[in-house]
Write a structure and sequence with these properties.
The complex is a heterodimer of chains A (77) and B (387).
Chain A (H helix, E strand, L loop, with lengths): L7 E10 L12 E8 L4 E6 L10 E8 L2 E6 L4
Parallel strand pairs in A: 3-5
Antiparallel strand pairs in A: 1-2, 1-4, 2-3, 4-5
Chain B lengths: L4 E8 L10 H16 L6 E7 L3 H5 L4 H8 L6 E5 L5 H14 L5 E8 L6 H8 L15 H16 L3 H16 L12 H5 L3 E3 L2 E2 L9 E9 H7 L4 E10 L14 H14 L8 E3 L5 H10 L8 H6 L10 E2 L4 H5 L3 H16 L12 E8 L4 E9 L2
Parallel strand pairs in B: 2-3, 2-4, 9-10, 9-11
Antiparallel strand pairs in B: 1-7, 1-8, 4-7, 5-6, 8-12, 11-12
Helix pairs in contact in B: 1-3, 4-14, 7-11
The chains are: A mainly beta (77), B alpha/beta (387).
Amino acid sequence: MTPGQSLTGSVQSHTIIRVPGKAHAAKAPFVLLLVQLDDGRRVLGHFSGAEPPAIESRVMASGADNETLSFALEDKS
Amino acid sequence: MSVEVHIAGVGTTKFGVLPGHTLQSLAVEAARAALADSKIPADKIGWVLVGNFVGGIMTGQELLGPIVAADLGLSNVAAIKVEAACASSSAAVRIGHDLVRAGAEEAVLVVGVERLTGAPREALTSAMTAAIDQGTEGGSGLTFPAFWGLVMARHMHLYGTTREQVAAVTVKNRQFGITNPLAQYQKAITLEQVMTSPPIADPILRFDCCPGTDGAAAVVLASKSLAQKYGSPSVRVAASVLVNGPVRITDYKDITTHDGTVNAARRAYEAAGVGPQDIDVAELHDCFSIAEIVDSEDLGFFAKGDGGPAVTRPASERNTKVVINPSGGLLSKGHPTGATGCGQIYEIAMQLRGRHPNQVAQARWGLTHNGGGTAAAVTVHILEALK
């Protein structure tokens, strides 16, 4: 994610990873989303909440954790 | 002109928690059983192919092809390991099939083997994720339960597949496992037990997951003429297909349809000259309960979205006669990843020979479906009973 870049899209699917691999053991449980971005790309990303948003919810990237985008619900205000 | 290929012999170990065994000892036990079953002398074997996924990671042992061949007393043969994640040994069968079909060899021994028990669950989860593209999606924390959790949540959203329908796959396959002496789990389970088991990667629960397993299985592939010469208890290989599919979940157009399975099935049915309505018995890659539902749709047994309701639909109300996973499947028989493909062929060969503990009456056509990674390496084999 580069400065000034706004990535929005819709949730295609979600899961909560409770039994992670060794590299992600400290984070668990965490929400993983499959997001269809408005620019046509499909990405995996983390979510800010403990419970996943409903499928088809609108989300926006709020940052990145290493190479993985982090999403939050899109602010419509 | 191509040579007709037979599964001339099959052999296996029990699948389960097998302390005191090594990769080599398991592989040799299954291979010796397959060679004895085929009645073909060992000196007719031209190649030894060993399917294995994480032997190096879990046990530190590599170079399994030459080691297993040597332990079998075979010298002056080609011997290599084949790796295609959970489809390793069925991919090896495809290679062996082509060697015989082309007339390059009269007989090929394929062995699948894995040891997965005894290690902490976290270590096993990490080993399995070696089949996720580490350059891209591995960094997200994606695991295989999570891959299938994403597939299951989407399938439920698009088609109304219910939690009960998915759990019913485990209940059905555990019921089959009770009477399969090779199975890791030989106890019934209730719908309630599945649905109240702890979450692993929502909506995937513990009893939606197949176990990690130790075991080996082997097949002897031979030309029809060699099998007939030695009186092997053969079944005919009508189709042997290996294709690739998307290697990243983000490459899927629709994660509820697995292109590798769809393409492999299409090619296999065309090669065999049959369709899904002709298949009497099938062993599908039910690594997770939702996988059997998705696979049964992608193989054409049920329409897309109908795989869930079909699990509990009475046979008399189905449009297909196929019996799915009468071995107990991966959910009950267990999943020694590198051995699973050969294990499925063992089960179908026994069905077509009329010698299976959960025998499907008058089974003529059998199918195996084995998937590696994110359904990134998929095999479909169609076998026919000989009259």
